[in-house]
Specification:
RNA-directed DNA polymerase activity; about 325 residues; metal ion binding; RNA-directed DNA polymerase; Alpha-Beta Plaits; alpha+beta; about 10% strand
C-alpha cells in the first residue's frame, strides 16, 4: 500500500499528532492553544516573513537573498533538524553535508586529464514549490496536509528562497534524481562527477560536448538550464581548481593564498600585531587608524581561521601546523594581559 493510500485512513487528530511530533515550534514561546494556529498563519502567508538582503560576491556583484524573520527562521531550523536530516542525499552531492568539507568535492578530481565545470543558472529560484512538495517531503512519510505546510514553510512565492536555512538541504533532495542519474551515467564511462550547490564538476577523459549535451537535456527536464557563460575547461597542464582548491597533484590551497597568509603571519611575528595592522591601515581616514585591543584579537582569530582552512585541505602541511601554534600563542599572550 502506498503512502498516499495509507494516510487516507488517518483521522484529523492523527494528522495533528503527526504534525506535532515534528516539533516545528521548538524554541518558540507560544501558548498551547495557539500552537497550530501559529503554524497555519505562517505557512499560509510565508512571504510576509521574509525581508530582502544583499551580500557581495567574491567575483564582483551582489547576491540577492530573502532572509526569514526570527519566527520563520526558528521553524525552518526545526524543519532542518527534525525533518530534512532524516533523508539521505546523493553521494555525488558535496555541499551542505554535516561533518563534511569542500575537500570531499575536490578529491575525486585530483590529477585528472581534463576538468569540465558547469553552472546551473538561477539555481535556487528555479526550484519550484511542487518539486519541494514532491522530493523533499515524500508521500510515504507525510500526509498531503503536512507536506503542503512543510513545503510552504520552505518556499516563498512558489520557489526556494536563497537565504533560508532549509534551502540548501531541500535543494540536495530535489536534485537527488539528477545526481544519481548523472553519477551513474558518468561512472559507466569512467568520468568523475560531483555537484557543489549549482557548480558541477566532471573529470577524466571524455567527449566534452557529449557531457554538456547530456547535462543540458536532463537539467531541462527538471526545469533548470545551464549558465553557458560560466562553462570552464581546465587541462592537466593548466591550474585545475574545484571549489577554490587546486587539484592538479593533490588537494591544496592556491599558492597566492598561502603566500599572502604566510606574509601576514611573518609580519605579525616580526613587528607585532599592532604595528602590522597600523601599516595595513595607512591611507585610511584618521578616525579609522586608532587600534583597539579587540581589533588585534579579531585579526589573529581571522588568521587562525585561514590557517585552519589550509590545514583542512592539506593536514600534512608542516609549515602551517607550526604557524597555527604561533598564532595561538599570540592569542594566549593577549588573553593573559
Amino acid at each position: 500500500m502506498g503512502g498516499k493510500d495509507l494516510w487516507k485512513y488517518c483521522t484529523q487528530e492523527q494528522v495533528r499528532a503527526a504534525l506535532r511530533s515534528l516539533r516545528l515550534l521548538d524554541g518558540v514561546h507560544i501558548r498551547e492553544e495557539n500552537y497550530f494556529s501559529c503554524l497555519y498563519a505562517v505557512s499560509n502567508h510565508p512571504e510576509q516573513h521574509y525581508h530582502p538582503a544583499s551580500v557581495p560576491k567574491k567575483g564582483g556583484g551582489v547576491r540577492r537573498l530573502l532572509v526569514p524573520d526570527p519566527l520563520l527562521c526558528r521553524i525552518q531550523k526545526n524543519i532542518l533538524r527534525h525533518v530534512l536530516a532524516e533523508f539521505p542525499i546523493s553521494e555525488y552531492a558535496a555541499a551542505y553535508k554535516p561533518g563534511t568539507s569542500i575537500v570531499e568535492n575536490a578529491e575525486p578530481h585530483v590529477g585528472a586529464k581534463e576538468l569540465l565545470k558547469l553552472d546551473i543558472r538561477h539555481f535556487f529560484d528555479s526550484i519550484t514549490f511542487f518539486q519541494v512538495y514532491g522530493q523533499a517531503f515524500p508521500s510515504t512519510c507525510y500526509p498531503p496536509a503536512i507536506r503542503t505546510m512543510l513545503a510552504n514553510l520552505c518556499c516563498c512565492r512558489d520557489s526556494l528562497p536563497q537565504g533560508a536555512p532549509t534551502s540548501p538541504a531541500v535543494s540536495n533532495l530535489v536534485m537527488k534524481p539528477f545526481d544519481e542519474y548523472m553519477g551513474n551515467w558518468c561512472q559507466e564511462r569512467g568520468i568523475g562527477y560531483t555537484r557543489y550547490c549549482d557548480d558541477m564538476t566532471f573529470s577524466g577523459e571524455f567527449d566534452r560536448r557529449e557531457v554538456q549535451n547530456k547535462v543540458r537535456g536532463f537539467l531541462a527536464a527538471y526545469g533548470f538550464e545551464l549558465n553557458e557563460q560560466k562553462t570552464r575547461v581546465q587541462k592537466a597542464h593548466q591550474r585545475q581548481t574545484v571549489t577554490g582548491i587546486v587539484v592538479n597533484e593533490k588537494p591544496q590551497v592556491s599558492r597566492a593564498y598561502r603566500r599572502k597568509l604566510r606574509a601576514e603571519i611573518h609580519y605579525c611575528s616580526k613587528y607585532g600585531v599592532e604595528s602590522h595592522l597600523q601599516r595595513r591601515r595607512e591611507g585610511q581616514a584618521p578616525e579609522k587608524e586608532r587600534l583597539m585591543e579587540a581589533d588585534c584579537v579579531h585579526f589573529l582569530q581571522q588568521l587562525l581561521g585561514k590557517i585552519n582552512y589550509v590545514l583542512q585541505v592539506n593536514p600534512e602541511d608542516t609549515e602551517f601546523c607550526r604557524a597555527k601554534e604561533i598564532v595561538k600563542e599570540m592569542l594566549a599572550e593577549r588573553a593573559s594581559l
